[in-house]
Structures
1.
Amino acid sequence: MIHVCYGLHDASGKYSKFVGTAITSIFENTLRPVTVHILHDSTLTNKNRDKFSFLAGKYNQAVKFYNVDELCPDKIQIIREKLAEKIKERFSIGAFYRLLMKEILLPAGVKRAIYLDADIILNTDISELWNCDLQNYPLAAVPEISSARQYMISNKFLLLTGKVAKENYFCSGSMLFNLEKIDDAFLENGVNFLAENPDCESVDQDILNMFFSENYLKLPEKFNVFVEIGKYFEPAEKLEKKFYHYAGTHNFGLNPDDIFDRLFLENFTKTPFFDIEIFSGINSSVVMLKEMEASKGQWLAANRLSRTGIFFGVKGNLETFKETFGKREDDIFIDTLEPGSFERLVQTMNEYKGRATAYLFFRIHTFLDLRTNLINAGFKDGEDFINAALFLGASQTGVPESFSDFVNAF
């Protein structure tokens, strides 16, 4: 029996469909018996629970449910108290449920288990990971430097402080655990570490790396392939037998001509979560999108007449925007590839504050990071700056857009 675990906190009711799609990709590709263990809280509705059960029955597989609030109330309380700000600001408490695997699954007789994030879709048999020889290691994972390659984000707290070597830092989305090798005090020690080091941004992944980065089995990249790299940097012509990590909803699109979108859609449409409510959400989103397009055009026309433009992007994007919407004599262009470009942007925005709008050209998740930095610097979104990629199509800017970039109804 292969044991696979997911953590689930679904306050909006929109997360369960991603877990269901991920599970379907396992069942579709695996002939051996699989038991899926879902560590959840009270946000799992009876309706969604029934859908998970139906899904497992459809494939003659098994699913089991564990309410973490009932089984581990003391541990959950510690997490909520010591990491209240992190949970409030950015992270779902569900990110920590994987850290309860030993406490919940070992008493149920499960000594070895695979953990997967809900945004990992399999295009291969999960037995490939299950059959890995863990030897005497507590876990197996893919080093991030293998998955992200030259795009690896190297300014993480653990890397900057030297607590974890760059070549050892691993992704926590796909892991094989030897639960008997996990220390009983692991979770509490990890939560204390995060509380004492608020600059840690990856929370559960940082906890795992802090305690296991020098003692884990390094897996090949095929068990954690980042879709973003394949989609935007190294496009593939066909999918391979790998674990594809969509790493956030911004990489889930609805374009069947895109091989990665198609992989997700093929699995999603086989779940009981693909129903009339989904179509209703898509229809509402299309209406919302049309209204957004109209209001964007009206805003841009008024803004170009009254304010200087500060354009922040690569030269091609800037030239395209200029050709499409015209150029004012006082417009300023800043190439993001030039050294110190962001510092120059902030300096120029301060100099022209109240008289100019900065137009940024980025995919939505990158824009959101810039947005945070600019807001912290005292600027207002929609007044002092805006994401100009919203005014141009992907063919014009080279900035791919997906349906989920600007609506969340799906």
2.
Amino acid sequence: MNLQNKSIVLNVVLAIAVVVLGVRLVSGVAHAKKSAAEAASAEQAVLDNIATRTSIRDYGSRPVEKEKIEKMLRAAMAAPTAMNKQPWHFVVVDQRATLDALSDANPHAKMIKKAPLVIVVCGDMSKAIEGGGRDFWIQDASAATENLLLAAHAMGLGAVWTGAYPSEERSQAISKALSLPDNLIPLNMVVIGYPAEHPQPKDKWKEENISYNVYGKPLAISTENPSASKAETTAKDNGSGEFKEFDITSDFNTNPFNYFCGHGLLLCAGDKSAANAMTIGWGALGTLWGKSTATVYVRSDRYTHKFMERSPYFTIMKFDDDRVVDYMGAHSGRDGNKAAALGLHIAYTKNGTPYYKEASVVIECRTMYARPFSREGFRDDVPRDFYADPKTKGFVHTEYIGEVVEAMRK
């Protein structure tokens, strides 16, 4: 092989190596992106499960499967425990006679009469720490109980924690019903079944219950960790930044033709007793009947639709955080409190219209017109084909035209 041929072969080999390396790099980047997306999805699933769990006190007759019972117990036993003592014991009850006896043992556990399952969480004093740390069994068994509750919710079950210890009367009655030995103390009874009710989770987030570094100190910029300071400052501004009113007819510098498309908008309706928000991508701003108006569209099967129907006002909110809009668009308010899951803080206008403090722009509207689309009115194949798509399930949108009564931004 002459020098020229060797050079050609070498160039071909190098080219192949570069291609292989490039494919591996691209594959590696794609894999990294996929892994990051999967990690973010898993993280959100865990947080959603915590935020949407609520106490269920009414159950259907369907029994709880044995494999789900084991999964709940495995989750319970994965809880943290002081010195790894694991001072717990779980009594699984699914026989009706014993369930009824447990219901009678606790005046606040009458829901057991309809429940197919109770797991009694006990402290095992034969495994408890000796000396001053003996009562740590209460913390350990409580942590196990919370794990059990979260596992039940994750599997579509409903559950409620009913207390026993330190009520001597309840503890003795439960111990008698279960023939517990002296070393077992019933801390609580977790009542479990398939839900026959779907209450909304309570939003328990309260900033006043938090101090930083010392009692009573609010969130502040740390001079020790500049990267953390920026994140903390952003969180504070988004949550508590002041809104200022502005004139939407003269001081609105966004193109109204694309404002509703890709601008991170939420629609919210309701009152102080109940409210719901959803992501929107359709809408219009303009003038009608001598008023500055905003038009939005809500399909009749959406959970927000019933709030729009009964509320005289609604708000359109802009969010700079795409995660809020993505989550609101992918989850239904029927399944849980979306605002609580996202850590949003609800506020109300002077008219009592709900909005979220974390929004960057809020437009409040008074509903002037509300009417579902009429299929007979479609004069083009675009709307006809849209509502013929199986994804719409035959539901059409209701058009809501509202007078803009207030606009504010940060």
3.
Amino acid sequence: MITMTEIARLTGVSQPTVSRVLNGNPNVGQEIRERVLACAKEHNYQCNALAKGLQGSKTMLLGVLVTDISNGFFADLAKAIEAAARKAGYTIILFNSDCDLEKERSYLDVVSRYRVDGVLVVPVKENGEELPDFAASLDIPVVAITKPAAALDAVYVDHRSAGALVAEHLAERGYRRFLFIGEEYDRKYLGFREKLAERGLAERTGSVAYESDRQLIHFLETWLRRPGGRTAVFAGNDIFALRTLSALRMLEVSVPRQAGVIGFDDTSTGRYLRPALSSVSQPIAAMAGEAVSRLLWRIDHPRAEEILDLALPAELVVRESA
């Protein structure tokens, strides 16, 4: 790869002049500018973004930290973030925390050493606890995406309202026993249970966080034996929903006649199942666009005190499973 020093030698100008041309400084004569740019293009000169960062200039790099890249939702989100960043002239560097708080901290520290201009983070913790304090120590702008985070700009879907939307739909469809697959602190479950409580169905609602498919099958088998009417399962994400559908097939439970299932994220896989999976759809492109836009604004306004807390609406996509 050609360097600025080699371009200077080939064009007969000084290395500082080459640097000014390649960094867009207007105080260079037109003839020299054209000569330097032609040489750089001919030899496929690539800007060293890290070196620019060390010099204090923008690197035009954004860090992106997601919790589970194996989940189709986060793969789609990363793709949408990349598209939004690219429109603004930025490139992204992607990291995966694997839902591990220590990895989240470690990767945020790593990404800051890459001298990125800013970072988009999917928080590991449900309410983004601890993230603001750690982000403050990085000295680069951080925006949370998909979950709120106190004292940080955040763009997300209101999971509590989405959970209530699912509860409303299932209750109206005649289901009378309700099971959430996921953690009880999940905002989706809180909204789900609150709405069911309003209808006098709180005592018919439960949750399970399982560690293996065998555990899930056992729990579903036990739950379905209880009296009280048809069961509806609300899964915290589409991966949990797909595993639930598989478990119900093994138990020879008919979906949706004997049990209904609704997922969360509306990833593409669920649309092609039989029965096709009902799921909550998040506005991925809008969320990515708003988050990138806010991060770029924060890069240009690092001392602004105004905090963005933008909750976008979700949509329940009803298919065959519920």
4.
Amino acid sequence: MEEKKKSKIIKTVICIVIMAALVIGYYIYISNKDFRTESSKEKEKDTIEKLLASDLEKEYPSNPREVVTFYSDLICCIYNDEITEEQMDILVVKLRTLFDLELLEQNPLKEYVEDLKTEVADYKKKKKTIASYQVSKNSEIIYQEMDAENYATMSGYYRVKTKKSNPVTVCEEFLLRKDKEGYWRILGWELSNGKVLDE
């Protein structure tokens, strides 16, 4: 009889310990999750504010790598972050400042904004995010001169994550041209060999 009593007490104690461990574990998980979320929101806010405050007339990127890096920062912000319509308009102006005149002529502002907003909405609907990116090193950029104009070709690698599938790395080839003031502007870009690289 006493053995049954002991066994029952032991089972009860084990149940209490397990329940307590689960409650503590869940509390720690929630606390860390909230902390990570707040931390990432602060970082996101800082990035948006930094991009919004940037003045390309005073501090335009000095070389092709910096141009594509700044372009990539803007794209990540537009596609990933929660931004207002007003912030979107400011970021689009900055984005288009990086574009060559020829590219601007092919993409009138109104059409460009509509297409971009549609693409961003589709991205968010599919719960996609650009987790990270890398651009070619300065030593990997290919420079050419044609018809008295200077061109540069380089790559950008964008790691795209979704909730439903494995991350993929999208490789884009950028073509830049130096304008009359000596600034490098993006003339165009395309998927490298039309491929999306799975990881």
